Structures are given as C-alpha cells and as structure tokens.
C-alpha cells in the first residue's frame, strides 16, 4: 500500500511515524515533508496548498490513500479534488472544513446543533466590533474568523488591548482576509481540553484527549502560538466526562452536518473549557492538533490505517481503538523571535544524544544546501516551532521529567521553550488512576454500560428511549474482563452518585451484568447481545443463570432488548418518581392508541 501524507510539520512527522508501523503500508510519500520525515518517507517538494500538484502526484504515483495533515489544505478543497479524480483521501470536504476555516460559521453550527458554547457575536467592521465590545466587558476574546496558524485568537484584558487587536486584525490586516471578520467571545474560566474523535459521517469513535499550552511564556503569559507543548490523558478527562463530550458535542455536530447535507468524515478536534456549568466548546478543528498529534499517536496501539479505512467506509461502529497504558508529554522548541519574526538558519545540535524511546518530531527544519559535496549536511532552523520532544511515562511526572531532560540536550541559537508544561495543579501521581470530579451539573438516573465500542449501535437504542422519556442517563464502556477493578468501583459508587438503575449490555460469556449485580443493591437489567454464531443465545443463557440473592433482570436479545431495558427502567423509576410515572403512562397510552387495557 502506498500512502501520501500532505504537510511538512511535526504533526505530519508523527503521522508518518505511525503509518510507517502499519503492516499494510509498503511506501510513504510526504509533500512537502521535512528532514525528519525524510528518514521514514520519500519527501516530494509539492506545497500543501497546491491542490492540483498534489492530485497530480497522487495520480502519477498511484497512491492508495492520502492523509491530510494541515487545515490549510483541507480549506483549499484538496479532499474534493481528490475524490473527483477517484482518489481515496482521509479528511473532510471543503464545505465540512468550514468548521475550522470560519470561526463564525462554526459557532452558528454549534447553535443549530445545541452544543454548549460561550456567548459570542460577530463583527464585519471595526466600528461594529467596538460597539459589540461594550456588551461583553473584560477580559474578552477576539478571534479572526479565518485561518491564522493558531495566532488569530487574543485574550484582551484592557480596552486598549482590544482596540489594538481590532486595529491589527481588521485595519492593518496582519492575517489578511482571515481577520476581516471578527468573532467576539465571552472569556471563560476553567482548564482547557483538546478532545478528539474519528467520524465517518454517521458514527463517532472517541479518541484520547490532551491538554495544549498555547501562550508563549510560562504561566500562560505572552502571545498565543500554535502550541508550545502539552500532555495526553489530563487527570480531569475522566471516562464519564468524555462520554458527556461525546453526546453533547461530537454527536450533535455530526448529526446536524449530516442532516444539512454536509457530512463530516475525518478527525474532529474540539477545543473546550471545563467550566463550572460543564464543558463548553470554544472552537473546532478539522484535523489532528499540533502538538496533540505528537502526544497521542505514540500512545495509539491500533493500526491507524485500519481506523481511517473504517471511517472512509462508514464502518466506525464496528471499529475499536486500543491505547498504551501510559501518558505522554511534549515540549516544543521554538526559534528566537517566535511568534512574530522567527529567526531562521540557526544550526541545531544535540539530536544524537537524545535517549532511546524519546521522540523528536521535526517541524520547521531544513538541511544546508550543499548538494553532494557534504555527506552530512547541517540541520538548520527554518521557522517558528522547530521541534517537538515527546516522552512517555507511567505517570505524568515521569513523562514530564524525561521530556525536559531530553529537550535540554538539544540546542540552537535563540532556542526558547516553556518550563511549565504538564505541571498539574492537582499534584503528582498516576494520571491513569486519579479520580477527578466531573464538572457537570447532571445526575444520571440510569447508567448504561457495555463491554465494547462495537456494542454501541445497539445500546444507543436504550439511550434514545430514555432521552424520549426525559430520564437522565449516561453510557459508558467498561469490561468485566479487561477492566474489572473499574467495573467494581463503578458499581459500588453508583448509588451514592444518584444512579437508580443499571443497564448492562453484554455478549458471549456476558459477565458484565452479573459482576455489577454482585457489587450493588441497585436493580440491574441485562441486555444479551448477538456476538457469536449463536446470535446471542449464549449471552441470554449466561445472564439468566445468576445465583440466588444476586438477581439480574434479563430482556430479549439485541436492539429490541435494549429498548425494553429502557422501558423496564422507566417502570422501576415510576414507582417513586411521579414525573417519570406520568411520562411513561402517556407513552404507554399513546402506544396503545387509547387507554391501557
């Protein structure tokens, strides 16, 4: 299989590195690439914005799949051009990429989809922007509507700073057309989170989350950049929170775009604030983040090619994703003068001394142009963000210490980097085991569990019924075999959290419902799932054979059972909840076409 990767930054280096591990891949091309990528792939000097040149390259070299890195190529319509020529390409269309290429378009989409977001307004002239500012107070966030390489967002803490930003963006046009329209946005309080998902137009497959550090200087001071580093698996990104983000962010956006005839296929990146009212989306990106790709791809155990193929075929509901049981920390080494006027041409030293297992992903680098005269040309800086040093560890502290120890081995004139990446205010310790409260004003009455992502399509039927009846619920993946400690802890804590009924979907040996029932006095309903040639009969028999004193109510196999589990849960809740009782009674009356018999 021959793959073309579009782009030439550290994100694309990480993509090439991951694709290089796939047993399906025989050859990788990268346009335009960089010296780091050249060690793994053939680099071709075609710019990421040259849609016609890229299409010609893919046709001439008979590429089986193209993977798009930068947003600028997606906004230029590279996916549309490739698809028109019958070429397989992973990424959203130009129309769908507006979710990043226009901040205002994205906010309007969020409004239609009901996605939680900060208060905002748009301005087409400097005068309009100044008038609207009076309604927002300070601090306030001003954003260029279009693409600005991560430098189009400014937090203004004074009226003078706001006026300067309006002047730079809309009068001096430092970002060109991108800043001719301005988004004015409420300033939010709380930690930021980068959430990712693969989307095939119909289904959502959540990925790991990360936390980026965008300001240039320690303490989140200085101008915004494309990102100065970050870390994977933030302690506050609990499975419960990520399920909320899936259902309140990714799925509504996906469904709305599909309903409007503009389906989204590719990686979708939601930038959020975790506020006291819950997660709120400040922006969407239509691709992997940078530096987030460098943080997440080294943790991905699954074959990236297989996942992308599933997305292109609309089969993500059958896909699963596996991750390393570690975290990662990445430190961006930037040129002097960045982000305004980055210095170029400085020699980079120390790469050969980096520890084995530590990744150094190239971004703005180039080799000296000495031709064949020098067999070992020097490596030089060639832009703002030069390298990303990424280390893995069992704890956040371990990964951070290793990343900084190796970042210090590299040097070039004017090199700058932040010294406070991945310093968690929650304190040191394993990011895998730390329990953090969910910042969400919601108490699920019914908890729905399933053993695998492949069960989601069926168990979503339970969610739909409960949502229709107005019963708060949550849907989570946990396995009685793979994560037994988590299942046990969940069952024991469910009652204190306000959960009143547990519903568990399980296939094959179907242990999940019984394990839950053995650790709680809450009613447990088991949904047998068709996971083998026996079409769920094995699951059904397994669930009903519980020992005396540990009951599990069992419904029929598959989607019908998933729906009946929701109705049974409603019946249980209706005994003590008058509102649920009336809603469920109305449903039953409507279903029968009159009075209940």
CATH topology annotation of the domain at 446-592? Rossmann fold
Question: What is the helical fraction, as a range of percent?
Answer: 25-40%
> Biggest β-sheet: count, sense, barrel?
5 strands, parallel
Assign the CATH class of the domain at 446-592: Alpha Beta
Low-pLDDT windows of residues: 426-441
Report what the structure shows.
The chain has 18 helices and 27 strands. It is globular and about 80 Å long. Helices cover 31% and strands 23% of the residues. The chain is an alpha/beta fold and 597 residues long. Helix 6 (103-113) crosses helix 9 (239-259) and helix 17 (559-574) packs across helix 18 (578-592). Among the domains are: 2-90, Rossmann fold; 119-187, ATP-grasp fold, A domain (Dna Ligase, domain 1); 446-592, Rossmann fold (3-Layer(aba) Sandwich).
Key descriptive features of the protein:
single chain, 597 residues, alpha/beta, Rossmann fold, Dna Ligase, domain 1, 5-stranded antiparallel sheet
């Amino acid at each position: 299989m021959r793959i073309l990767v579009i782009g030439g930054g550290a994100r694309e280096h990480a993509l090439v590195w991951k694709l290089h591990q796939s047993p399906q891949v025989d050859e990788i091309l990268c346009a335009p690439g960089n010296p780091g990528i050249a060690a793994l792939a053939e680099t071709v000097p075609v710019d990421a914005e040259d849609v016609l040149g890229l299409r010609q390259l893919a046709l001439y070299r008979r590429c089986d799949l193209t993977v798009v890195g930068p947003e600028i190529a997606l906004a230029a319509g590279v996916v549309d051009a490739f698809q028109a020529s019958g070429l397989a390409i992973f990424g959203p269309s130009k129309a769908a990429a507006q979710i990043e290429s226009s901040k205002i378009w994205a906010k309007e989409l969020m409004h239609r989809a009901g996605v939680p977001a900060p208060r905002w307004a748009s301005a087409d002239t400097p005068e309009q922007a100044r008038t609207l500012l009076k309604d927002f107070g300070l601090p306030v966030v001003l954003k260029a509507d279009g693409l600005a390489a991560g430098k189009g967002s400014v937090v203004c803490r004074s009226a003078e700073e706001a006026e300067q930003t309006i002047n730079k963006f809309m009068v001096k046009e430092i970002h060109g057309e991108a800043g001719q329209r301005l988004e004015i946005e409420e300033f939010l309080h709380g930690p930021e989170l980068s959430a990712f998902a693969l989307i095939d137009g119909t289904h959502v497959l959540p990925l790991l989350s990360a936390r980026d550090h965008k300001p240039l200087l320690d303490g989140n001071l200085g101008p915004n950049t494309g990102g100065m580093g970050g870390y994977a698996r933030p302690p506050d990104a609990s499975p419960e929170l990520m399920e909320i983000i899936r259902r309140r962010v990714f799925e509504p956006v996906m469904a709305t775009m599909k309903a409007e005839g503009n389906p989204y296929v590719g990686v979708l990146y939601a930038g959020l604030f975790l506020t006291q009212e819950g997660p709120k989306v400040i922006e969407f990106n239509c691709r992997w983040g940078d530096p987030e790709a460098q943080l997440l791809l080294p943790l991905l155990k699954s074959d990236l090619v297989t996942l992308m193929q599933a997305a292109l075929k609309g089969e993500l509901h059958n896909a699963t994703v596996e991750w390393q049981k570690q975290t990662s920390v990445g430190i961006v080494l930037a040129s002097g003068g960045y982000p305004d006027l980055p210095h170029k041409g400085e020699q980079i030293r120390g790469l050969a001394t980096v520890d084995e297992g530590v990744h150094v992903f190239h971004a703005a680098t180039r080799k000296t142009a000495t031709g064949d005269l020098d067999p070992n040309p020097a490596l030089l800086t060639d832009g703002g963000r030069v390298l990303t040093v990424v280390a893995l560890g069992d704890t956040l502290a371990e990964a951070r210490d290793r990343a900084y120890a190796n970042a210090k081995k590299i040097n070039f004139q004017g090199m700058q980097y932040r010294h406070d990446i991945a310093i968690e205010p929650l304190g040191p310790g394993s990011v895998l085991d730390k329990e953090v409260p969910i910042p969400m004003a919601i108490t699920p009455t019914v908890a729905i569990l399933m053993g695998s992502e492949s069960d989601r399509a069926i168990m979503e039927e339970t969610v739909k019924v409960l949502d229709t009846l107005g019963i708060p619920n949550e849907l989570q993946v946990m396995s009685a075999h793979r994560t037994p400690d988590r299942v046990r802890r969940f069952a024991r804590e469910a009652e204190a959290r306000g959960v009143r009924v547990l519903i568990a979907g399980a296939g094959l040996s179907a242990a999940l419902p019984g394990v839950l029932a053995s650790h709680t006095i809450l009613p447990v309903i088991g949904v047998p799932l068709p996971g083998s040639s026996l079409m769920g009969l094995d699951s059904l028999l397994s669930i009903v054979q519980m020992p005396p004193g540990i009951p599990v109510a069992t419904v029929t196999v598959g989607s019908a059972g998933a729906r009946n589990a929701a109705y049974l849960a409603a019946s249980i809740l209706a005994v003590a909840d008058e509102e649920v009782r009336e809603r469920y009674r109305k449903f039953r009356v409507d279903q029968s076409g009159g009075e209940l018999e």
